[in-house]
Amino acid sequence: MISDRIARSAARFALIAAVMTGVPAAAHHGWSWTEDGMFELRGIITDIYFGNPHPTLDVDVEGESWRVELATPSATTRAGFTEDTAKIGDEVTALGNRSREETERRMKAVRITVNGKSYDVYPSRVPPA
Hints:
Elements: H1 2-28, E1 39-49, E2 56-61, E3 64-69, H2 73-78, E4 91-98, E5 106-114, E6 117-120
Parallel strand pairs: 3-5
Antiparallel strand pairs: 1-2, 1-4, 2-3, 4-5, 5-6
């Protein structure tokens, strides 16, 4: 009897944990939170995070702080952009899709250009030249 209760409690806990951790991930991934059209952003890097779920760059654009999300760490690295590619103070140009939320200064980049070199982190989404 006690082991049945423990097993049921463990199963409920696992289900709750799966739902609680899965919902934010489902909401985060994909492009549903971005506008359809391409958007270009230029500014100075103020912070760099290189980790899961996505590397990010914080970028100062004329006094406003923007968050630029890149691809997953492995896809970003495959594009040639590693955690040593850019540093705080570098100028960056990001091409991608901005958040649908107008008050949110956030975008998902498909291409970033740092120090004159471009990195296509989502090459299939980069518009033709």
